[in-house]
Every structure is written in structure tokens, then in C-alpha cells.
Amino acid sequence: MTTASGSRAARAVPPGPPRRQTFGLLKKLFTDRLALMTESAAYGDVVRIAIGPKSLYLVNHPDQAKHVLADNAANYHKGIGLREARAALGDGLLTSDGETWKRQRRTLQPVFQPKRIARQAEIVAAEVGALADRLRSKVDGEPIEILHEMTGLTLGVLGRTLLDAELGGYESLGHSFEGVQDQAMFEAVTLGMVPAWLPLKKQLKFRESRHDLRRIADELVERRFAEELAGRDDVISRLITSGSDDRERMRDELITLLLAGHETTASTLGWAFHLIDEHPEVGERLHAEAVEVLGDRPPSYEDLKSLTFTVSVIEEVMRLYPPVWLLPRIAQEEDVIDGYRIPAGSDVVVVPYAMHRHPGFWTDPEKFDPGRFAPGVPRPPRYAYIPFGAGPRFCVGNSLGLMEAAFVLAVVARDLKLAKVPGYEVVPEAMLSLRVRGGLPMTVHKQERS
Asked: Which family does the record claim for this protein (predicted)?
């Protein structure tokens, strides 16, 4: 492992680490990717890791992240992990590059406009109300798998707000996306050296998952072709009316949207309930704010301006556990980052998980403190906090995700308390998104109204 911090003048990259260290890094890439990233960040703001025949250049500083994601974004295409995910997701908005990506973004951007998202608030509130009713039925009962509940919620919201479709009948979606993520990460950490045709259990599961996702996407598209499109502005309708009859492209877009549109918000909510349980005083403030702002009614879009502490909690959750914990890129041409030469074809990885813990920009960075994001509190530089990415590829669904998460925390905190099963160990799992490994069993209790 070698640091690439120092002089701004371009110079040759120092030699890689010795073979013994390389083996240890490869093992950690399999077993504890988050520790690898945070330990590497201690060596400098730009760090080279040599793993077998490959080198990864880790970017852990806002200035260098801005260079890769914004200033010279055209030179950096999607990289390790997302490159492997393309086998299942196809060339959707998450994995495509260049003109293909620009065309897709133009087609889908109107669906995510703030005015349209505001009009969807009533639908989101209804889905959150249904979630709260399900949780109330479990008060003082057996533990429930809260991540399963959050996934069901986020899929319901995604279906009704972005696709104008009910997804409740597709119960295999979560299982199939897990198969895709497992295989994508396996190929990434094995550097693509394990042939995809080998009948390994993981790869067999991947092929089944890919087939299932394609089936679901094709069904959604075919159903919409048989319906009246006039006056509809959802994603499927826009794909159909965009002038292309390319069914494969539509399938790619839908599969990508189904994954990105539910996984990140569900993961964020899981981490939020874990941290609130660990910090009861935060739960009490959430409850008090929800009672004051909402009373007994459902939340509305206008309430977001008043749910300031709730939004601060979500922002702090995403600082500690950014759903997009890694932003992988491939340098198309040789570049210089922080004075170091980056050869063409190099894997360059911006690490929000490490930047969100950078001691140069965050006081006591491991502490859960929503007060960092309170109104009027000075914030660090823009690129020190990028839970939705940054630059041209900034996540188009950030407004919907924030609204959804705020509504869930406010309604649940107002009426209920969620508590982890005593002794249950919560462990992060760094896949395409940052999630809780093995789920999050919690018990549901009635909240005494303040």
C-alpha cells in the first residue's frame, strides 16, 4: 500500500506493496471491505493498493473526489462492481456511460422533477401509513425482520410513484437482487478471474436471479404496451414514448431502477432504526417533533420544512452509513490526481464511507450526532459529504428517497418504538449498497404520546 499524497507536481507512482501485504489486502477485500477502505485512508488522501495484477487508487479527500466526479468526469467511466453488475442490470442508468447514459438521463429526468415528486407525497404517505398499520399489529409480539418491512415499503413506493404499477405480487424481487449483488461483488473481489460458466452455487443463483428480473421487467413493459399511455408520465410510459421500441433497453432501465430505487432507502432506514435504538434521546426528540408537526394526521410534502430534526437524523445516518459507500470509476485516459500519475485503464475508487469519517472535516467522526446537520450549523466542503454521489451522475432519486425516509421516521417515532433483539450484533455488509448483514430483527412497542 502506498500513499499518493504530497506535491502537486506530476511524478511516477511509487512501487506497490510487497507480496505478503498484497495477500493480506486480497483477504480483507473478501472479508472486511470497509476496514480495508478506512485503514487505507489513514495512509493519505489518495492511496494506491496493489492486489495481484491490479492496482486500485482510492480517493479519500473532497478535492480529489471533485476532480474525479465533476471536474474531469468525462474521463472516468463506471468501474469495478458496477462493471460486473452490468451482466444482470444491462446498460441501465446505473451502469451505462457516455452518450447512452446522457440519452437515458434526459428521458428519465422529468419523472424526478421536484414538482412531480411533491405531487407524489400523498402516495408515499399512504404507503407509510400502511406500514405503520402492519407494525402496530406486531406490538409486543415476536420480533419482526425490519429490513424486510422496509424493502416492502420502498418497493411499494417505487411502484406507485415512478412506475404507476403495483409490485406487491413480485415477492421474488428481493431474493433476485440479492443474487445479483452477491455475484457482482464476487466477480469484483476475484478480479474477474473466476469463469462465469463454472457451476458454482453463487453463479447458479445469479443466473436464476437474472432470469427472474428480466421476466418481471418484461411483464411490466408488456402490460403497459397494452394500456392507454395518454397523460401518463411514469418511467415505463416515458420509455415507451421516447421513440424507441428497444425492449432490451427498457428492460435494462427497469431492472436498474427497481434495484437502485428501493435498496438504498431501505438500507438507510434499517441503519436509522438501529442507531435510534442505540440512542434513545434521539428517538425522544424524533417523537416530540413528529407530535408537534403532524399531530394525528399523515405527513405532507410541506411538513418536510418543519421536520428539521428528522431530516438531520437521516443526513447523519447517511454520513455514517452512506448507502452508496463506494463510487468506482475507470480512467479512460492518463490523468494526474493530487500530483500522482494515474495510468489509463486504472481503477479509481472514490470512497464516501471514508470521506464521511475524514478527521480533517468531521469532529469526532465515529460519533452519531444529528446536530451536525441542524439548520444554521456550518457544514464541511460540498464533496466531504456525498451520500447520493456527486457531479453529473448525482442520484436523480435523492428527493424522493429523502421524503420517503423522513415520512417513515416521523410516523413510526410518533406512534411506535422499535427495539433490537437483545444481544443481536449489527454488522455492516458492503455490497453494491451498504446494508446490515443478515437482517435486523426488532420488536415493536407502543409509543406513549408526549
From this structure: Belongs to the cytochrome P450 family.
A 10 A CB-CB count for 233 gives 13
Phi, psi angle pair for 347, to nearest 5°: -85, 115
The Cα 279–Cα 320 span in angstroms is: 14
Residues 426, 274 contacting (CB under 8 angstroms): yes
Q: How many domains does the chain have?
A: 1
- The average pLDDT across 428-442 equals 91
Instruction: Determine if residue 395 is labeled as part of a ligand binding site.
Output: yes
Q: Tell me how far apart the alpha carbons of residues 291 and 288 are, in angstroms, rounded to a whole number.
A: 5
Say which residue, 449 or 251, is predicted with more confidence. Answer: 251
Q: How many CB atoms lie within 10 A of CB 238?
A: 17
Q: What is the pLDDT of residues 248-277, one digit of tens each?
A: 888 888 888 887 778 889 999 999 999 999
CATH code of residue 2:
3.30.43.20
122 located within any domain:
no
Share of the chain above pLDDT 70, in %: 87
pLDDT, tens digit (0-9, with 9 covering 90-100), for 159-215: 999 888 888 888 888 888 888 878 777 777 766 666 666 777 877 888 898 889 889
- Residue 65 is assigned to a structural domain of this protein: yes
State which residues form the domain around 337.
Answer: 1-71+325-367+375-384
Is 450 a domain residue? no
Q: What is the dihedral of CA 121, 125, 131, 137, to 10 degrees?
A: 180
pTM: 0.89
**Is the residue at 179 inside a domain?**
no
